[in-house]
Amino acid sequence: MLDVRRLRLLRELAHRGTIAAVAEALSFSPSAVSQQLGVLEREAGLPLLERTGRRVRLTPAGENLVRHAEAVLERLEQADADLAEARGGLSGALRIGAFPTATRTIVPAALVALARRHPGLEPMVCETDPAAVAHALRAGDLDVALVHAYDFVPAEREPGLTTEPLYGEAMYLAEPARGASAAAGAPGAPGPSEAPGAEAGPPPDQGAALRAHAASPWITATPGTLCHTMTVRACQAAGFTPRVRHRMDDFGAVLALVAAGQGVAVVPQLGATVPADPAVRLTRLVMQRRTGLAFRSGAGAHPAVAAFGAALRAAVPPDLAGSRAEA
Question: Where is the signal peptide (predicted)?
Fold first, then answer.
């Protein structure tokens, strides 16, 4: 009989690529991971790994076993969900991953509703970049997480995970204002749920709007994040590579630098819902950011995951909830 704990190690190796990465993620020593995978090979009765120096890759039999492991682990998540439902009354920790703009604008209201309905549940929020969510969920470090995708950075399918769409956001080009017309409250300005200080009317030619700043300094998120990749790819699609001056992940700080004349940036709608600054002009672009709720496949029916999802959907502003494109 194959051991499910060793199957999990093999699955992690398939996704992380190295034994060292698996060991670090699951708090094992590399030698312990290698030993357990060796035991799994003996249980399987044929080679599952090919070793070339320090590199390891799965054999066809190993890749096929990983597919079975995904199905087994999904059924175990379903069994856990069924047991939680049978016990009744939610309690214990719920580990939630969320990115900063959602944590600041939507998650607090969801947690208030969750505490009111399920006082025994202990939600624990950890700021997690969507690029790191898949590994954290599969390793069991998170139970549920908010993820996002952009038009220029589509979400890749992650084996073993399920993502449900939540909402979509408009994207804005943030640049230093040239006059008082960008001030909040100007005639025709969007409502409070829209980005303050944004120009009214239909989105302009996105390529032309970005190309107008081909020679400008840019402010992006830190490399390795989806937000950084989005800005670079959007500019490249417009025909140039941005000259990045500042790198930071807090959109409030990004807008402060724009107001100080330090560069231009692309920001999402929730990232722009800070006190309006007349020194910043926000021009709506055609592109969009889509946010979804991710969890391990089979865990969607778990009462705690379902309760958090319901509270989160109720907390989404109506103008965002109306756009539920697949994340």
Answer: none
Q: Looking at the structure, do residues 294 and 145 belong to the same domain, yes or no?
A: yes
E strand map for the chain: 49-52, 55-58, 92-98, 121-127, 144-150, 161-176, 217-220, 243-247, 265-268, 280-296
Distance separating alpha carbons of residues 259 and 300, to the nearest angstrom: 43
First-to-last C-alpha distance (Å) of the chain = 38
In this structure, the answer to whether residues 146 and 294 fall within a common structural domain is yes
The per-residue pLDDT for range 248-296, each reduced to its tens digit, is 999 999 999 999 999 999 999 998 876 667 899 999 999 999 999 999 9
Whether residues 118 and 131 fall in one domain: yes
| Amino acid residing at 89 | G
- CA 283 from centre of chain: 24
Q: Which of 19, 163, 11 shows the shortest CA–CA distance to 73?
A: 11
Does this model's pTM top 0.90? My answer is no
Among residues 22, 5, 26, the alpha carbon closest in space to that of 14 is found at 22
Domain around 35: 4-84
Distance CA 194, CA 269 (A): 7
Strand 144-150 to 280-296 pairing: antiparallel
In sequence order, what DSSP letters do the residues of 217-241 get, joined into one string?
Answer: EEEEPPTTSHHHHHHHHHHHHTT--
